[in-house]
Every structure is written in structure tokens, then in C-alpha cells.
Recover the amino acids of this structure.
């Protein structure tokens, strides 16, 4: 752990586990616990990474919290200092690449897709598999409930509340869907409850 050439600017840093924080040079206030946790981080500040390969590729992003196996695995800030992402749960936010201010809570919440990583900002997915395949520029989505919004890909500005509820298509815009197993009907619409 922490085998890089560190300066006094790494104050308050803790690295526990094989290759945890091994590239750190000047990022202060980082905590990495687990196999290759925050291993690429050189100058990122105030990141917390707990779990096998969590926040593995972050170099200079700040204020990220990743707890869980491969949470925020592919994240790297688009600009030095960007970040403010929170991922809690196995594989949560795994394929978020450059987005900022995203929150993913639950098993595979906001996991994304390898090859078409999520670059969008300000998504919130709470519940196992919620926002499971979010990708590309999908942004400003709020998905609450087990598997809520789990088929949405690049959709934006949607609110889905209820287990297994979803928008009517993967690229939906401005849909509000509320209720158990409810499916939205169109962009710029509100759907309350299913028709069962």
C-alpha cells in the first residue's frame, strides 16, 4: 500500500491492502482499504474507497466515496478536482466514467455498461439494480426502488419511484413514473400506478 513518491501534501491519508493508493503523490485526506483500492490516484483529494478494486482508476477526482466490490471501478474525473460521487454496494456505479454528483446505493445500483460508460451528472439510483444500465450522457434521473429504471440507458430528467417500475423506453426524457411495476407512457408525462 502507498508505495508512490509521496510529499507532505498527502497528509491524512490511509492505505490498507495490496496496491491501495500505490500511485499517490500529493492527494491529501484519502482513505483506501482493499485490494487495488484507489490504486491509480495520484493527486485526487478527500476520496474514500473501501472494497476490492473500488475507485481503482481515479487519478485526480476529488470527494468521491466508493464502498463495495468494484464500486466506481472505472471512474476518472473529466477535469482535475471533479467528482463528488457516492456509490455504496457491490458493483455500484461500476461503469461511471466521468460524471459528477451521482449517487448510487444498492447492489449494482447505477452499475452501467462496459464500453459505453456513464458520463452524465446528478443521477440518483437507490435500490438493488436501480439504474442498472445507465450509460452515455444520461443525467438528472432519480430512480428509487428495487430495479427502478433498470432498462433506462441514456434517458435524462426522469423520476421513477417503485420496485420494477420504468420509463416507456430506454432514452426517455422528463417522465415521472410512480407505483409498483408501473411503466411510463411518453416523454413529458406523469404516470401513477399500473393498470392491473
Amino acid at each position: 500500500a502507498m508505495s508512490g513518491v509521496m510529499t507532505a501534501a498527502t497528509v491524512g491519508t490511509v492505505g490498507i491492502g495490496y496496491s491501495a493508493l500505490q500511485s499517490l503523490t500529493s492527494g491529501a485526506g484519502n482513505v483506501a482499504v482493499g485490494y487495488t483500492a484507489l490504486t491509480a490516484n495520484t493527486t485526487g483529494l478527500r476520496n474514500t474507497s473501501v472494497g476490492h478494486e473500488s475507485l481503482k482508476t481515479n487519478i485526480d477526482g476529488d470527494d468521491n466515496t466508493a464502498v463495495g466490490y468494484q464500486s466506481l471501478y472505472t471512474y476518472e474525473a473529466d477535469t482535475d478536482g471533479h467528482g463528488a460521487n457516492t456509490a455504496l454496494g457491490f458493483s455500484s456505479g461500476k461503469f461511471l466514467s466521468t460524471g459528477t454528483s451521482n449517487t448510487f446505493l444498492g447492489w449494482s445500483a447505477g452499475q452501467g455498461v462496459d464500453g459505453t460508460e456513464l458520463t452524465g451528472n446528478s443521477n440518483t439510483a437507490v435500490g438493488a439494480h436501480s439504474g442498472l444500465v445507465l450509460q452515455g450522457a444520461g443525467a438528472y434521473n432519480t430512480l428509487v426502488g428495487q430495479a427502478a429504471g433498470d432498462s433506462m440507458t441514456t434517458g435524462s430528467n426522469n423520476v421513477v419511484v417503485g420496485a420494477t417500475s420504468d420509463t416507456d423506453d430506454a432514452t426517455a426524457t422528463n417522465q415521472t413514473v410512480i407505483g409498483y411495476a408501473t411503466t411510463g407512457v411518453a416523454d413529458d408525462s406523469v404516470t401513477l400506478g399500473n393498470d392491473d
Summary: Residues 93 and 111 are 4 Å apart (CA to CA).
